[in-house]
Design goal:
The structure holds two protein chains of two kinds. Chain A is mainly β. Helices cover 0% and strands 59% of the residues of chain A. In chain B, strand 5 and strand 6 form a beta hairpin. Classes of the chains: A mainly beta, B mainly beta.
Chain lengths: 111, 115
């Protein structure tokens, strides 16, 4: 089956690094994504990684992909209050138009 | 029971035509969205709408308009279709209470092909 799972909540102190984890089940995924959702807004694409890559870095964001374990993580360095949001992990399946989303991780920033 | 449904699943039409894609959610959510999926399968937000406010992504051409006959429906109407409108369009819904936003639930997508 196709499933994407992530923990629902994460609390991090301002200035620390946040690591949001995600596991997926379909090994035929092509792209894996991280989306951010802030209150009142739709999903905004944060970053993505192609399934044949291990790592991608983009400023404060680092994506790690362990294809063997079907594990994807998003690390946010120097977490700021503006990073407070819901982060969705998602995978696209090459054989059809489907995108499978996790339920989202609510990142809460502690002062 | 399907939570978020879209019709049709496939839509093939000629350039210049006007078409609509329907979306219905039976989750009792008060916010609905339309996304366009691009060639790398990114989802780009087009509209978010609840019974209070329509938020439009400023990059969306005004040929696209959301129409909501009631809280459970948000249809996407497209005028004067162009070749570049060919894409997969996803509808979604979520429940928002103040500043708390819940998970988005997605429809299966509608593949629009403009000839």
């Amino acid at each position: 089956g196709e499933d994407v799972e992530q923990s629902l909540f994460l609390s991090v102190r301002e200035g620390d690094s946040s690591v949001i984890n995600c596991t997926y089940t379909d090994s035929s995924s092509t792209y894996l994504y991280w989306y951010k959702q802030e209150p009142g807004a739709g999903l905004q694409l944060l970053t993505y990684i192609f399934s044949n890559m291990d790592m991608k870095q983009d400023q404060r964001l680092t994506v790690l992909l362990n294809k063997k374990d079907k594990h994807l993580s998003l690390r946010i360095a120097d977490t700021q209050t503006g990073d407070s949001a819901i982060y969705f992990c998602a995978e696209s399946i090459w054989r059809d138009d489907k995108i499978i989303f996790g339920k989202g991780t609510r990142l809460h920033i502690l002062p | 029971d399907t939570a978020v449904s879209q019709t049709p699943k496939y839509l093939v039409t000629q350039m210049g035509n006007d078409k609509s894609i329907k979306c219905e959610q039976n989750l009792g959510h008060d916010t609905m969205y339309w996304y366009k999926q691009d060639s790398k399968k990114f989802l780009k937000i087009m509209f978010s709408y609840n019974n209070k406010e329509l938020i439009i992504n400023e990059t969306v051409p005004n040929r696209f308009s959301p129409k909501s006959p009631d809280k459970a429906h948000l249809n996407l109407h497209i005028n004067s279709l162009e070749l570049g409108d060919s894409a997969v369009y996803f509808c979604a819904s979520s429940q928002e209470t103040g500043s708390i936003t819940d998970t988005q639930y997605f429809g299966p997508g509608t593949r629009l092909t403009v000839l």
